């Protein structure tokens, strides 16, 4: 889609609709290798979120704004898969418009990214530093964020190189959207709302993830078990 009010979407493959949402500072190009595999089994929809890549002309101030942009153009019903901030957005969509979501998958994501004892997550100072750095050099700040995501990987240097190559293949994100995204990572907390989730959910975590500690998986399982073993229709956790 190329209209000034439309997001940039790409669609490949045949089968059940699957929407992929990228994370903070990224764009839909980060999914290219994944799409090559998934498009053999699904009709895969990748999108540049408002403010990012070819959608840099748009703005999403909060989860509700971004959700409206996405649902205006997304398939009527699909599997929604979100990475990092994209997982937070996909979770919000599943809560607000469950009829549009057949299944929810989050990758390296959390219902609350900011740490707050005893909750594990990104230390508030790290998010504050990213916010301050963003005002000085947003391109360098995004590159540092990529490096954090690859931390612990035996191929971290190559991983960051591939991420940068993909992201830089499209227009730079606008600073306002980057700032809004950091605010969401710092402030949003969907933990209590996820108890009311009405669609099957799969959560995937990285064993060495430097931003979303894998112990978040266990913390969530314990939290939901104390509410009700039947609160979520199908809550699965996968550790990579």
How does this model look, in words?
The chain is an alpha/beta fold and 240 residues long. Helices cover 39% and strands 17% of the residues. The protein contains 8 helices and 7 strands. The protein has a 7-stranded mixed sheet. Helix 2 (63-73) crosses helix 3 (85-96), helix 4 packs antiparallel against helix 5 and helix 5 packs across helix 6. The chain is globular, with a radius of gyration of 17 Å. The N and C termini lie far apart (35 Å).
Task: Spell out the key features of this protein.
alpha/beta; seven-stranded mixed β-sheet; about 240 residues
SSE order and pairing:
Elements: E1 8-12, E2 16-21, H1 32-38, E3 42-48, H2 63-73, E4 78-83, H3 85-96, E5 101-107, H4 124-136, H5 138-150, H6 156-167, H7 175-187, E6 201-205, H8 215-227, E7 235-239
Parallel strand pairs: 2-3, 2-4, 4-5, 5-6, 6-7
Antiparallel strand pairs: 1-3
**Tally of helical segments:** 8
Most strands sheet: 7 strands, mixed
Distance between the termini: 35 Å
What would you report as the Rg, rounded to the nearest angstrom?
17 Å
Low-confidence stretches: 227-235
Classify the secondary structure makeup into a structural class. Answer: alpha/beta
- Give the tally of β-strands: 7
State the shape: globular
Question: Which percent band covers the strand fraction?
Answer: 15-25%
Average pLDDT confidence is 88
The helix/strand series, from N terminus to C terminus, equals EEHEHEHEHHHHEHE
Query: Helix fraction?
Result: 25-40%
- Across the major sheet, the strand order is 1-3-2-4-5-6-7
